[in-house]
Automatic annotation (TrEMBL), chain A:
<keyword id="KW-1003">Cell membrane</keyword>
<dbReference type="Pfam" id="PF00528">
    <property type="entry name" value="BPD_transp_1"/>
</dbReference>
<comment type="similarity">
    <text>Belongs to the binding-protein-dependent transport system permease family.</text>
</comment>
<keyword id="KW-0812">Transmembrane</keyword>
<keyword id="KW-0472">Membrane</keyword>
<feature type="transmembrane region" description="Helical">
    <location>
        <begin position="53"/>
        <end position="77"/>
    </location>
</feature>
<dbReference type="InterPro" id="IPR051322">
    <property type="entry name" value="AA_ABC_Transporter_Permease"/>
</dbReference>
<feature type="transmembrane region" description="Helical">
    <location>
        <begin position="146"/>
        <end position="169"/>
    </location>
</feature>
<dbReference type="InterPro" id="IPR035906">
    <property type="entry name" value="MetI-like_sf"/>
</dbReference>
From TrEMBL, chain B:
<dbReference type="InterPro" id="IPR003439">
    <property type="entry name" value="ABC_transporter-like_ATP-bd"/>
</dbReference>
<dbReference type="InterPro" id="IPR017871">
    <property type="entry name" value="ABC_transporter-like_CS"/>
</dbReference>
<keyword id="KW-0547">Nucleotide-binding</keyword>
<protein>
    <submittedName>
        <fullName>Methionine import ATP-binding protein MetN</fullName>
    </submittedName>
</protein>
<keyword id="KW-0472">Membrane</keyword>
<dbReference type="InterPro" id="IPR041701">
    <property type="entry name" value="MetN_ABC"/>
</dbReference>
<feature type="domain" description="ABC transporter">
    <location>
        <begin position="2"/>
        <end position="247"/>
    </location>
</feature>
<dbReference type="InterPro" id="IPR050086">
    <property type="entry name" value="MetN_ABC_transporter-like"/>
</dbReference>
<keyword id="KW-1278">Translocase</keyword>
Length: 223, 359
């Protein structure tokens, strides 16, 4: 393949990959953040201690995390079809990607929130703060650097998943690499897609790290 | 202002129960600084946390400013809206400050005002006033991470005052600070108590804190209050452990036929030459074994351990004289004096040293 042949494929692939990853990341954050917060709040000794809810969420999250993504992808086909109307194409892929990443992200949120000093929670309780206030004004802002770093990790995991999704009717760089690089034995094309994926991952990691550092610097400037 | 009755807190772990509070009755009057002192594990931390119900008491009631908080608490673990409203009128400061390091100093002080639903501009104005009050007007835009411990605690105090509370709870507020900073923070608390009429309940393990600012004090041991009262009352209580701790005087009898008396001076009597009067009136030689003068709760108080020649029976009249002068005189029996002073003066008594010098 010549460069002029490759270029539109790569551009389209990159666009599709970013489209799938960014949208599914958004859904993942919206779905995983409350789950992670609930995991902490309902835990033993938590503000909303509730063993049943905690165990149920915990089991769901663990099942979600232990299923290999490729299996999840196939198992979710009826659900995806029901939500999007089709199970093929980048938009349809957002569903399994988000479902696969939500449990993963929820655990990262849980860890981040747990690290918040309990004394701060007590301080806000002593001011008469309600539980939503505590979550909004203490837990989330204080855990923000860890949460951002969790989002970065999730984005990178999603890029990996999205390549697999390419094998089951998705689009994106992964799908292009399989179709043109692997099935047509075009090593050059394969190498370029790999390089491109590395660049995307590196850029995301860099942006993530920089954000974390900026956020963390506020509090710890002189201490 | 703060009353607890029969306050009990039992912590349950898997196979045993720990009683942190065992029927605590506490009474803090309006406008006073009340110190609860005790060693770690005595239950004082559980006590102060039960006052604003951060910790739910197992039984007993807590009343703050006439409001029965235990009745407001509701049944579940979640604080009811009424309890939360009551908490906005009780300020609390913490040993480790508990400031949000993701917010500036000003935003930290605004936090309780946000909870109270005060609008933006009024919030900032109030927060700035409070910063001014604690002497940190220039640190509004700093982050807590850039402040020293003493400054952080000042921010903590300003934050606790944001809701215009009548009561301030202080949970070991100076325990993480060096002695000099401790003094300045205590001074600030004292000033606030006097300027704003703020009632302060503090817990501490440092006797100096009680000495410096408390009007009243209570001693906690194993979940119970074993002694309590105003500092004056405590000092006037024979055998009071707190008085002894507040005012340690040492020294043992120099011989068998001696009577050791602890004399406590308060207020007016502190300035009268009673000892020389005693010596002249009864023509006896008095040795001073130990003495201390200090200001406790803003009052000049002194304590002296003196030795009179002869057994107790021979000294009934001079001791009566001391009591007539409005002093508190307490005879120390040989055994307890020996144990109290043994570690400090193992070999020679101060009196013995004095005699040698005189020779």
């Amino acid at each position: 393949m010549t460069w002029s042949e490759m270029q539109p494929l790569l551009t389209q692939g990159t666009y599709d990959t970013l489209y799938m990853v960014l949208w599914s990341a958004l859904v993942t954050v919206v779905g995983g953040l409350p789950l992670g917060v609930l995991l902490v709040l309902t835990d033993k000794g938590g503000l909303l201690q509730n063993t049943v809810v905690n165990k149920v969420i915990g089991v769901i999250v663990n099942i979600g995390r232990s299923l290999p993504f490729i299996i999840l992808l196939i198992a979710l086909i009826p659900f995806t079809t029901w939500v999007v109307g089709t199970f093929i194409g980048p938009t349809a892929m957002i569903v399994p990607l988000a479902v696969g990443a939500i449990p993963f992200f929820a655990r990262l949120v849980e860890t981040a929130i747990r690290e918040v000093d309990h004394g701060l929670v007590e301080a806000v309780q002593s001011m008469g703060g309600s539980i939503p206030t505590i979550v909004r004004k203490v837990l989330l802002p204080q855990a923000l650097p860890s949460l951002v770093s969790g989002v970065t990790t999730t984005l990178i995991v999603l890029i990996g998943y999205s390549a697999m999704a390419g094998a089951v009717g998705g689009e994106g760089l992964g799908s292009k690499a399989v179709t043109y690089g692997f099935q047509r034995f075009d090593n050059q094309f394969m190498l370029i897609t790999v390089a491109l994926l590395i660049v995307i991952v590196t850029v995301i990691q860099l942006i993530g790290d920089l954000t974390v550092r900026l956020l963390a610097r506020r509090g710890r400037a002189a201490s | 202002m703060i009353t607890t009755t029969g306050l009990t807190k039992v912590y349950q772990s898997r196979d045993r129960e720990v009683t942190a509070l065992d029927g605590v009755d506490l009474h803090v009057r309006e406008g006073e600084v009340y110190g609860v002192i005790g060693q770690s594990g005595a239950g004082k931390s559980s006590l102060i946390r039960c006052v604003n119900l951060l910790e739910r008491p197992t039984s007993g009631t807590v009343t703050v400013a006439g409001q029965d908080l235990t009745a407001l608490a509701g049944r579940g673990r979640r604080a009811s809206a009424e309890l939360r409203r009551a908490r906005t009128r009780i300020g609390m400061v913490f040993q480790h400050f508990n400031l949000l390091d993701s917010r500036t100093v000003l935003d930290n002080i605004e936090l309780p005002l946000e909870i109270l639903g005060v609008s933006g501009q009024a919030r900032t104005r109030k927060a700035k006033e409070l910063l001014d009050l604690v002497g940190l007007a220039d640190k509004a835009k700093s982050y807590p991470g850039q402040l020293s411990g003493g400054q952080k605690q000042r921010v903590g105090i300003a934050r606790a005052l944001a809701g215009d509370p009548q009561v301030l709870l202080s949970d070991e507020a100076t325990s993480a600070l060096d002695p000099e900073t401790t003094r300045s923070i205590l001074q600030l608390l004292r000033d606030l108590n006097q300027q704003l009429g703020l009632t302060v309940l503090l817990i501490t393990h440092e006797m100096d804190v009680v000495k410096t600012i408390c009007d009243s004090a209570a001693l906690m041991q194993r979940g119970r209050i074993v002694e309590s009262g105003t500092v004056g009352e405590l000092l006037a209580t024979p055998g009071s452990e707190l008085a002894q701790e507040l005012f340690p005087v040492g020294g043992t009898a120099s011989g068998p036929d001696r009577t050791v008396v602890d004399v406590t001076f308060q207020g007016e009597s502190a300035s009268q030459p009673v000892i020389s009067q005693l010596s002249r009136t009864y023509n006896i030689d008095i040795s001073i074994l130990g003495a201390a003068m200090d200001t406790v709760g803003g009052k000049q108080i002194g304590r002296m351990r003196i030795e009179l020649p002869g057994r107790f029976e021979e000294n009934v009249v001079p001791i009566g004289f001391l009591r007539e002068q409005g002093l508190q005189a307490e005879v120390v029996d040989g055994e307890s004096a020996a144990t109290a002073a043994a570690p400090a003066v193992p070999e020679q008594t101060p009196a013995a040293i004095t005699k040698e010098v005189v020779k």
